[in-house]
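#structure-requests
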Amino acid sequence: MATKAKIGVLGASGYTGAELVRLLLRHPRAEIVLATADRRAGQEMREVFPQFSPFALPKLVAIDGLDWRSLNLDLIFCALPHATTQKVIKDIFAANPAAKVIDLSADFRLADTASYARWYGHEHYAPDLQKRAVYGLAEIYRREIKKAQLVANPGCYTSCAELPLLPLIKAKAIDLDEIVIDAKSGMTGAGRAAKEAMLFSEVSEGFHAYGVGHHRHMAELDQEFSLAAGREVIVTFTPHLVPMNRGILSTIYVRGKRGRNATDLHAILSKSYMKEPFVHVLPFGAVPQTRHVRGSNMTFIGVANDRVPGRAIVVAALDNLVKGASGQAVQNMNLMLGFPETMGLEQVALFP
C-alpha cells in the first residue's frame, strides 16, 4: 500500500474546513493528522460536525503553540478567515522553509500587495511570500501549481466567472469592455460564524444583491482577466445571496468580436475544456443549474444566443464549497504532491 501524505487542516470547524475533511476522508493517499479550531480546541470533530462520528480524526487543537518544524506535515490546508492567514503562513515557512501550503482565504490571491491593502483595508503582512504564491485555478495554472510551495486557492465567485471567460478572453473572441457578470451564491459562501444578517428569518423567502459596485472579488477578476488579455480589464460584477445552502450560478453577458457569435464562443469553450475532468461544456443552448453540480467538483458551462445581435449569454454553475473552495484545494494538493489530479474528487453530483 502506498504511503499516505500527512495533512493538516487549519480552521477545520468552518464550512470549507469541514468540506476538506469530508473529501480527504475518502482520499486514498491522504491522512489528516492535524486539525485546528481555536474556539473549539479540545473538542472532537464529531462534536462539531456529527456526520464525522464514525471516523477516527485528530482532536481539534489551537494554532498557538504548534511546533511547525516537528509536525512533519506533507501539506497544510489553511481555511482560516481573511487577514489572519498571512501571519500564520509566515510562521509556518519560518519554521519549515520546505512546507507546502494551500490557502483557501483571499490573503494571497492578489499579486499586487498595494491592491490587497486597498481592497482589504490593511497592509499585507507577508509581502515576500506573496511573490512566491501561485494562483490556484488548476485548469489555467496547472504547470505552476505542480512546482509551487504556496498556492492561493481562488475565490468561489471568481472561479465561476474565470472558467467560462478566460478561454474567450485569451482567444480575443469577446469585447473586453462589455463583460457583465450577474452571480448568485448559496448561504455557505458567507461562512459559518454567527451573523444577524444570516439568520433564517433574515434571508429566507428573499433574494438580494450585496457588495454592489465594490465586492472584493472584483480585484481578483480584474487581475486574472487583465493577465489573460495583456491589458487592463474591468468587468461589471454583482453578487447576490440566495436562500439555499450550496451553489453558485453566474449568468454572464458578452459581445463577440470580429463577427463571432454565440455558436463560435461555444466552440471555443468546448475545445478548451474537452480534456478537462472537472469542467463540462453543455450542448449549445442548454444551461446548467446549481443542483446539477451539488457536492461535486464539477463546473458546468452553457452558452445561448442573446436576442441582441452579436451578444451571447454564458451560464456557469459550481458548488461553492467544492470546486469553489475545498474541492479545488484537493485538486491542487494532488498536483503539488504528484498524485493523479482527479484522485478523491470523482464523486457525482447529489440529485435531488
